Amino acid sequence: MSMQPTSNQQVFFYAVPAMAIAFINLPSAMVLPTFYVEHTAATLTGIGVVNLLRWWFDAATDPIVGYLSDRTKSPWGRRKPWLIVGAIVSSLAIFQLFRPPADAGNVYYGVWLCGVYLGFTIFSISHLAWGSELAVDYNDRSRISTFYSVMTVVGSILFWVLPIMLAPFTGTSEIGPPVINGIAWVFIFIMPAGALLAVMFVPKGHSLAQQSPQPLRETIRSLRFNKPLWRFVAAQAVWGIGQGMFLSVIFIFMRDYLLLGDKFPVLMIWFFVVQTVSMPVWAKLMGRYGKHRCWAFSWAAYSLVQPVVLLFEPGTDVFVPAMVIVTITAFINAASYIAPMALLGDISDYGTLKSGSNNTGNYFAVQTLLQKATMGVGAGIAFPLLAAFDYQLGGVNGETALFGLILVYIIIPAVTSVAAAIILWNFPIDGRRHGIIRKRLEQLASRQAKGDYEQKGLSQG
């Protein structure tokens, strides 16, 4: 079977919706909890509990969406209808979440936060599985993942540019109610527009499965015995706990510890600009040294670089050294944008070879389920842990409270990154082995097609 690679233009349109997701996803995890505590009736401990429950709610919906996505039949393919539904649901929920009344409490925050991530789940599971089906080989997945990751970074940059653009009107570049309100309006424009571009201009993708999607019991069984999947999931789960804690307090650390609150948008813009430039470099490195080795190396390197920030003296003079650290960590973290999507596609091919059925949506659902669950643990622990150390947001804090912030922001994420790197280092699917898997899949699909043709000829005769 000969399959032509998807053109760069088509891959670009495929990747465009990732910009909208990233515009909300990562930045809101950094600043939205703090915004609610400071501008609504929500409480520090309550936000921590809601974040934990939200991650678990989000995780519980992943396998349902993945299972249904793999079994959807429509004139536009399996994945595209889910993109439209996800865009609508998330847009409606964002409009409420980012425009809260002053008396909004923990329940208001939790309900609309769950609505946002339900929409993201409906959209993202199908979108990621679709991207895997657009690729034709090991390195082609890195190409598609790079496009996807670049658009993700563009969306994140857009989030941090917005406070600067509004500064002449608000008098500050810090993130407050006017910026949060503006974010909602931007999202409900770019999310539906991106989904429509992808649906209209990108092909359905390829499937090398020889069987129809399996019943639920057989699907669970095939996932259960896919050892590369669980090696991958274990590494991401360990890393996810630390990452969830890190993302929850990064804004607090920069504002309260380094005293760079007004410079935070600039730091984040530079971070994502460096990531964008770094992604093609990592894509080439992964083609040479393997996706899993590069990814594991980036985790280990991060754990060594991040603690250096503790050597800096807080204040305005720390801005330049902070930019240096941001530059280094941005280059390192670029690998984590490219590798997961590309590597999980390879794992899905292995599962298809073993089971004969394409369950790509389920693979991405399992991965995101456990990633969200573990990041939820990290996010859910972070704020209560700060409270346990008597940390006061925006207030004066003693050594004990500051140690609690350092523990959440640096120490635990560094330990989990090293542990995850060790788990992933000897991952069993590299470029050579994936080439064998794809060759066997194509041979089996070709035989199946030939058999179907001969059977059709006999029945007609």
Description:
- The chain is mostly helical.
- It has one domain: MFS general substrate transporter like domains (Growth Hormone, Chain: A, Up-down Bundle), CATH 1.20.1250.
- It is built from 15 helices and no strands.
- It has helices spanning 8-39, 44-70, 80-97, 106-134, 138-170, 177-201, 216-224, 227-257, 264-289, 291-305, 319-333, 335-355, 360-388, 399-424, 431-460.
- It is globular, with a radius of gyration of 22 Å.
What's a quick, concise take on this entry?
With 461 residues, the protein is mainly alpha-helical. Helix content is 79%, strand content 0%. It has a single domain, classed as Growth Hormone, Chain: A (Up-down Bundle), CATH 1.20.1250.20.
